[in-house]
Amino acid sequence: MEVKNSRQKQRELTKNAILEATEQIVLLEGWQAVSIRKIADAIGYSLPVVYTHFESKDAIQEEFVKHGFNLLATAMQQTNEKYIDAETRLTQMALAYFEFAFKNAAYYKMMFGLGIPSCQKVQEIAEIGKFSGIVIETISSLMDEIDEQRKFLKFHTFWSILHGLTSISMVNITAAPNEMQQQILLDATQGFIKNINR
Questions:
Q1: CB of 70 within 8 A of CB of 130?
Q2: Maximum Cα–Cα distance for the chain, whole Å?
Q3: What is the distance in angstroms between the CA of the first residue and the CA of the last residue of the chain?
Q4: pLDDT in tens, 29-42
Q5: At what angle do helices 148-171 and 126-142 cross, to 10 degrees?
Q6: CA 25 – CA 178 distance, rounded (Å)
Q7: Half-sphere exposure of 112 (CA within 13 A, CB side)
Q8: Beta partners for 115?
Q9: Secondary structure (3-state) at 196
Q10: What is the pLDDT of residues 48-79, one digit of tens each?
Q11: What is the DSSP secondary structure assignment for residue 113, as one 8-state letter?
């Protein structure tokens, strides 16, 4: 039993080393620079060892997507629970989203490497659905009439605003968003809220 636990622990350590090496490569060189060989070299293991844990580069990205969206959903849920007023909640969610992206730049880049995930991806990856559900619930509470199609339209509009402004701000990434970037985010969010029932 002890040998099995030791083996399991070693597998976890190796998997974490792979993910950490990938994160460093993404931060320094971008996702396009990631390769299984480069990861193996970074952690000092052979290619087959990396392939034992992840069958491809896409499988590594999916791991980051799941974990990243889980972290993002947690940040949204904490914000949701902290504020009573729906307008304040949505505004604070926008700020929490921005903060998440800057604090977790490598994760964010891998989560959105191909743009905002499609509806199919949302259905396939539960963590994306969890994040979406929290934001949709807050948006719905601001709507006079809740029509499913309109609710999803508003959610995607809001997410596009957040992702677009975050991506533009990350082009010249610093340790944290500056005051002007935050003001733009707040202005866009307030405009969205003001027009939510139009």
A1: yes
A2: 63
A3: 63
A4: 887 888 999 999 99
A5: 110
A6: 25
A7: 17
A8: 113
A9: coil
A10: 999 999 999 888 888 888 889 999 999 999 99
A11: B
